[in-house]
Every structure is written in C-alpha cells, then in structure tokens.
Design a protein that fits this description.
Layout: E1 3-7, H1 18-32, E2 36-42, H2 52-58, E3 64-66, E4 79-83, E5 89-93, H3 103-121, E6 126-129, H4 134-145, E7 149-154, E8 170-173, H5 176-186, E9 191-192, H6 199-202, E10 211-215, H7 223-236, E11 242-245, H8 251-260, E12 271-274, H9 280-284, E13 287-292, H10 302-309, E14 314-317, H11 322-326, E15 331-333, H12 353-362, H13 365-379, H14 384-400
Parallel strand pairs: 1-2, 1-6, 2-5, 6-7, 7-8, 8-9, 10-11, 10-13, 11-12, 13-14, 14-15
Antiparallel strand pairs: 3-4, 4-5
Helix pairs in contact: 7-8, 10-13
Length: 403
C-alpha cells in the first residue's frame, strides 16, 4: 500500500484557502484508491482573525488534544489529532494566535519534531506539500534524504524566484495557464490538473437562484470594478439583488471604494453582505450567477468551477486562468485595460456596460435556464469520478519514476 504524507503550513480545512482544500481533496482521492494517507499541518489560516479550532468545529470535527509537555519544552503548544471519514489521520500543531508568517519563528522547532516523527514512523513514499518559507524548503530536503519523493502543489504566482523547485520530484499546477507561466519565467516543467473539488463541500443540495453573488470584494478581486457595477445595477435594476460574500475583502472595502468615486453604496437596499461561509455550497444555495471580475491573473479560479458544478453561470474577467476554469460554461468578459492592482478609484460607468447587459439577460428565466444547463454540463469536468482517476494515475507515475 503506497504511503503519502500531506505536509502543509496551515489548516488543510481552511475555507479561505483553495490551495489547502484542493490538496486535501486530492488525498481523499488517493485513500479511496487504497493509499495510506496521513497529514501534518497547523491550525493557522488565511482568513483574517481566523480561528483554526473554530473552523474545525464548524465542519463537525472534534479533534483529540494532546497537551504540551512544558516540563521539557517550555514553549510547546497543544497538538490536535483526528481521523476523518476518508481515513486520513491528521496531526495539527495548534499555533494559537500566530498567523502563517509568524508561527515558524515561534513554533517551528516543535513542528519539526512532529515532522521527524512522521518521517521515521510513517515512512512516506511521497510527501505532498506547498510553502516557500526557508523552513518549508528544509523540510522538503529532509523528506528526500529520508527516501521520500516530494510533490509540490503549485497554486499561485509566488515562486518565480524559487530555483529550489527544480529539486522536486514533481510539480503539480492547477491550470495550463499557470504551467505555461512557470515554464516561461523559471524554465520549470510541471503537470497541470484542475483542482479537485469535494462535492459534499461544493454542491448545494437545494437551490433558489436569486442573488448575483461576488466573493471577497478586494483589490485583486476587482473591488473598484464591483463598486461601479453595484452602483449601476442598483440604479438601473433595483429589483436585482446583489450579495457580497466577505473573506479577506469585507463590506467596508466595497463601500470605501464607492465613496472614492463619489457614491454611497449603503443607500441601496438591493445590495447585501454576508460573512465568510464554512463551505462553498452555502455560497451557491441562493446564487443566480457568480460575478468574478478579478484584476490579477488568477492561477485558475476555483470559485468559477464550483459555480459550474451548481449550475450557476459564472461571469469572469478574461484574465489569467479564469477563462480556462469556466470551460465554456460561463462568460469571460474584458475589464478596462487601465484597471490594475494599483487602481484606487472606481472604473467609469461605461466600463461595466457589457457586464450589466449580461446580468440583465440572466435575469430573464428562459435565458437563465439555458445558461444554467450549459454551466452544469461544463462542470462535469470537475466531478470527482472524472478527476480522481487522473490524480491517482499522476501519483502512481511519480511513485514509479526514477529520482
């Protein structure tokens, strides 16, 4: 039975991290195929003020706690353990109030002791991981020295200077777009597979398509485009409700963006806000369409794929991997060329015209039914029964290849 260790610097169940969730779901594919999988990670999350323990509780996970032995190691933290329904035994270092950038300094030594134990006792054939902190890179080299192959899950643009990626036994990206970028910038060869999606977390069991939904109104996700779009929709079609799901970008950011353009979005009753959800399925329960005018080049666009699986047509910007993610089942529209990550004022009203017109078309039930059917068909690409065999074959090839 092949053995794989999922090694992450953050909570594998972090709802704010598509990367962490996708690697965890890939591991579930492997356990279903007969692999033995364990996970070692921390409770740190990407959510602002995120509480890893609380997030686990929201997902119905009640880990056992091993109290720290401070008689020997004065600064040790509690260790949490649990085995999930897929048979993945998970060990988490409770990093308390530390975030992703600070926990290595305060608790890295304890994490390394836990890691050494996993390498010695579990003896993984493969370590599946991500992270670019110096401590992370050293752990990859320790895995290789212990005889394990290292597969790096590359999910963002943050590694264009990471020459050490050449030491990995395999690099797995989330899109052909991202693989091409790293080939151009770093000369890195990688394998592209769409990120795996867990149906139980993604697909809403009951749907009432009411809201035009945008997630995480932040600068990179197009808050200065969304502010203008929200203003124009509310003025022209106040009967169309918009719902903004907060994450790293909150309601205040959208309101402030509008104020810089001279309009106050708080006066519109058709605009609503919701705090971050614990599972994507909650986003799509009431969604009619997804609005994703990302300014930066998304490596993939996980939320667009999740929308497709729910039959929710995504309207996305034509930047980065988003057009690839919608897979012909959504709409990729341009953003103004002058809209960049440095933009700090809303775009002109004319710039949102094509988006507004499409939103009005999607308000028509006949047009919407056809768009929803097309979205759901395109989403079949991301179903576990389609993706799981591709992931299992990828890891089998890694296992069989010579170092």
């Amino acid at each position: 039975m092949p053995r794989l260790l999922l090694l992450l610097p953050q909570l594998p169940h972090d709802p704010a991290s598509g990367a962490a969730r996708s690697l965890r779901t890939a591991c579930e594919f492997l356990t279903a195929a007969g692999w033995s999988v364990r996970a070692l990670a921390t409770t740190a999350t990407e959510a602002a003020g995120g509480d890893g323990r609380a997030l686990l509780a929201q997902q119905g996970i009640a880990p056992a706690e091993r109290p720290p032995n401070r008689a020997i190691y004065r600064h040790d933290r509690p260790v949490l353990t649990f085995t999930d329904a897929h048979g993945i035994h998970t060990t988490l270092l409770d990093t308390g109030n530390c975030n992703l950038s600070t926990w290595p300094e305060h608790h890295g030594a304890q994490f390394n002791r836990l890691y050494a134990r996993e390498l010695a006792d579990f003896r993984p054939d493969i370590v599946f991981t991500f992270g670019g902190h110096p401590g992370d890179v050293e752990r990859y080299r320790r895995a290789s020295a212990a005889g394990a192959k290292v597969v790096f899950g590359l999910r963002n643009h943050g590694y264009y200077e990471a020459s050490w990626l050449a030491e990995m036994d395999a690099v797995l990206t989330c899109s052909e777009f991202l693989s091409a970028r790293y080939r151009e910038r770093l000369g890195l060869e990688s394998v592209a597979l769409p990120p795996p999606l867990a149906e139980r977390d993604v697909i809403a069991t009951e749907r009432e398509p009411i809201f035009f939904v945008a997630v995480n109104p932040s600068v990179e996700k197009g808050v200065f485009f969304l502010a203008r779009l929200a203003e124009e929709i509310a003025l022209r079609r106040p009967d169309l409700p918009l719902l903004f799901i907060e994450s790293r970008g909150a309601a205040g950011a959208l309101v402030r963006a509008g104020l810089t353009g001279g309009f106050d979005l708080r006066r519109h009753e058709s605009l609503m806000f919701s705090p971050a959800t614990s599972t994507p399925a909650e986003i799509f329960r009431g969604a009619r369409a997804l609005l994703a005018p990302s300014v930066w080049e998304e490596p993939f666009g996980r939320v667009a794929a999740e929308a497709l699986l729910n039959g929710v047509p995504p309207i996305v910007s034509d930047r980065g991997g988003l057009p690839e993610a919608v897979n012909g089942g959504g709409f990729a529209l341009p953003l103004p060329s002058g809209l960049t990550l440095e933009t700090r004022t809303p775009v002109p009203a004319a710039a949102v015209g094509p988006w507004l017109e499409l939103i009005e078309e999607l308000a028509d039930d006949t047009f919407y039914a056809a768009a929803s059917t097309r979205a759901r068909a395109a989403g079949e690409t991301y179903l576990p029964q389609v993706l799981a065999p591709r992931y299992v074959e990828f890891f089998r090839r890694v296992l069989s290849q010579n170092r």
